[in-house]
Every structure is written in structure tokens, then in C-alpha cells.
Write a structure and sequence with these properties.
alpha/beta; five-stranded parallel β-sheet; four-stranded parallel β-sheet; 16 helices; globular; binds 1,3-dihydroxyacetonephosphate; binds iron/sulfur cluster
Length: 358
């Protein structure tokens, strides 16, 4: 297929099975949690380590990151924070591509993750060998990849983008007369194409969480709450994005929740984000946009199974035993650094990076 690359059905089935079998951290009683908190704080100080967490992980881990001088952020700010911070060890609490990005940017630092099996369906749905073949078939196009990809895919790219800066970067390339290969998220790709008018061919990946949001049921919920504002992450399907008042990255959604004049917000993203949204707007009511009903199946039910693999116990074990250390092949790392650094330089010079202090 020339204009779009389909994910083979067999690969889609494997991704779904991995998502359904992702392990959950065990239940911990209050005493054990307290003990783990104390141990993690001690180990962070002893090892000159800092936690860099994503908004979708458990609220208790987000709080611990902030209380110990780390950050909770979207994927752009996670990369930027880890890069600016002086700690010798970065503990990335999120999914694997986030740990890899941290290592690519900071080869001199040790990068640990609670569980290296924490995947992302976008990364899994864009295998490097097939992607490289696809790019080789279109040598006249600039290769723009989303952060949610492996180091090997980034190594074949000209630019990396996140949901915070994708429109601005593609707009810039379009103005320069470039045609684009976009991978892997088809919904975000469609959104960027619509907003920039750029000539883009799209890899057909999707996020198992955001792909489940359903427009029909969302309209029904909007009818029940006519004054609610609707906030949507651009990894959601087009029909859902079309109903949004605000479309943006996780950070943009938190800001929108804080600034909204509505008392009720309907949110189409992972409900892990509700922790920060409720802190930003404590008096507002947050409703999860529907993923089930007559047109949906709700198997992930608005929560990323891989983000949910992060817990206090595997975080403590990573620090204590050095398990979950991220390694990236040096040749791939050097090549992958180019599109990431290009994105960071662009974002910093266009004021697109947030305010997390390092
Ligand atoms: P953000 O860059 O908006 O944090 O998105 C990352 C992600 O994985 C969303 O599913
Ligand atoms: Fe990947 Fe979706 Fe999970 Fe984000 S929510 S990490 S895009 S699977």
C-alpha cells in the first residue's frame, strides 16, 4: 500500500494479547507502603537519583516523584527535565520508550525503570525493519516519528515529535516545502495533517487506550451535561476529536482543566491524568469519556495497562538491585539522538517546553 502502512492483523493480535496480560503490581497494605516510601527516599538520596514520572502512572507514584524533587510531566517535558537535571541516575516511571529517550539523551547517566516490560502499542505496532523498508520506498520524504517508538525507529527518523509540538514542527517542515512520512499513530497523524495541510503519508498504528473512545456515547454524555467542556488527547479517533473543545497533550489538558470556566469536564484520555487535573482544579467534576456502550468494547477502559505496571515495589527493587536498567546500542543511540535533539532545540527555541524545574 502506497499512502499508508497497515499493521498486520497478526501483530495487532499480539499487541492486544500483551496488553491484556500486562502484570499489575501486587496489593500493598498501608504499613508496607510506608516502608517502601521510606526505602525509596533513602535510596534516591544515597544514589543521587531522581524520579521522572508520566501523568498516567498511579497518583501515589506521581506524588512521591514530586515530594522527592523529581517531576511529573508529559513525554516532552520528561525528556527535557531528565536532560537538564544533574542527578547521576534517572528513574523513569512510565513506559519503555520514555526510558530509552532518557538514555539516548543522557548516555553518561544510569537510567532505571521499575519494569522494562512496560510497552506501548504504538511502539510495538511499528517494528523497525518494516518501518525502515517503508521509509526506503519514499526517499523524497522527511521522516517524522512520534516519541512513542523504539530507539531503532528513531534512528531512521529526521525528526521526533510529541503531542505537544507535532503541529508546530510539521507546520515548520511544510513551510520549508517538505513532504512527510508520519509514524506511528494514525489518529494524531490525521489531526496534524488536517491542521497543517502538509503532504503526509501515515503509518497506521494506534493506541490501545485512546482508540477505544467512542463518539456516539460521548455525544450522549454531552447531552446529559450540556455545560461540560470536552478535553481530548489527539491519539483518540477523529470523530471523538471532532467533538472536543480542547485537543492537546496531557500537559495541555491539565492546563485546560485549570483554566476552564465549566464546572464539569469530560476527559478523553487515560484516567491517570485525573490525579493532576484534580489538583489543578479541585472544585471541578471530571468524567471519563465513554469507551464502552453499544459502539465500544471497553477492554482497556481508559487506563494504559503498561503504565499500570509501575508500582512502589518494583520501583524500590530497581533502585536497590539495579534491575530494569535501560541500555541502548551505541550506534543506534547516536543516530536516534539527532531527531530527538532537533525536537528539543526546536521546542526550547519556540517556548514549547513546560515549566517543570530541574
Ligand atoms: P503525552 O506526550 O501527551 O504525555 O502523551 C504520551 C502518551 O503516551 C499518551 O498516550
Ligand atoms: Fe502507549 Fe497508549 Fe499507553 Fe500512551 S496510553 S503509553 S500511547 S499504549
Amino acid at each position: 500500500m502506497d499512502s499508508a502502512h497497515q499493521t498486520p492483523l497478526q501483530l495487532e493480535a499480539q499487541i492486544r494479547s500483551l496488553a491484556e496480560h500486562a502484570t499489575r503490581p501486587p496489593f500493598l497494605d498501608a504499613e508496607r507502603r510506608q516502608e517502601l516510601h521510606a526505602r525509596i527516599r533513602r535510596l534516591l538520596a544515597e544514589q543521587d537519583a531522581v524520579i521522572v514520572a508520566h501523568y498516567y502512572v498511579d497518583g501515589e507514584l506521581q506524588q512521591l516523584a514530586e515530594d522527592t524533587g523529581g517531576c511529573v510531566a508529559d513525554s516532552l517535558e520528561m525528556a527535557s527535565f531528565g536532560n537538564r537535571h544533574s542527578a547521576k541516575t534517572l528513574v523513569v516511571v512510565g513506559v519503555r520508550f520514555m526510558g530509552e529517550t532518557a538514555k539516548i539523551l543522557n548516555p553518561e547517566k544510569r537510567v532505571l525503570m521499575p519494569d522494562l516490560q512496560a510497552e506501548c502499542s504504538l511502539d510495538l505496532g511499528c517494528p523497525a525493519d518494516a518501518f525502515i523498508d517503508y521509509c526506503d520506498q519514499h526517499p523524497d520524504r522527511k521522516v517524522v516519528v512520534y516519541a512513542n517508538t523504539s530507539a531503532a525507529v528513531k534512528a531512521r527518523a529526521d525528526w521526533m515529535v510529541t503531542s505537544s509540538n507535532a503541529v508546530a514542527i510539521v507546520e515548520h517542515l511544510h513551510r520549508e516545502g517538505e513532504k512527510i512520512i508520519w509514524a506511528p499513530d494514525r489518529h494524531l497523524g490525521h489531526y496534524v495533517k488536517q491542521h497543517t495541510g502538509a503532504d503526509m503519508i501515515l503509518w497506521q498504528g494506534s493506541c490501545v487506550v485512546h482508540d477505544e473512545f467512542r463518539a456516539t456515547e460521548l455525544k450522549q454524555l454531552m447531552d446529559q451535561h450540556p455545560d461540560a467542556e470536552v478535553l481530548v488527547h489527539p491519539e483518540a479517533p477523529e470523530a471523538v476529536v471532532a467533538l472536543a473543545d480542547v485537543v492537546g497533550s496531557t500537559r495541555r489538558m491539565v492546563e485546560a482543566a485549570r483554566d476552564s470556566l465549566s464546572d464539569t469536564l469530560i476527559v478523553a484520555t487515560d484516567y491517570g491524568l485525573f490525579h493532576k487535573m484534580k489538583q489543578a482544579a479541585p472544585n471541578k467534576t471530571f468524567l471519563v469519556a465513554p469507551t464502552g456502550g453499544t459502539s465500544g468494547t471497553c477492554s482497556m477502559c481508559a487506563h494504559c495497562p503498561w503504565m499500570a505496571m509501575n508500582g512502589l515495589d518494583n520501583l524500590a527493587a530497581a533502585l536497590e538491585h539495579g534491575t530494569g536498567e535501560v541500555h541502548v546500542d551505541e550506534d543506534i543511540r547516536r543516530r536516534a539522538l539527532i531527531p530527538i535533539q532537533r525536537m528539543l532545540d526546536f521546542s526550547r527555541s519556540h517556548d514549547l517546553v513546560g515549566a517543570a524545574t530541574a
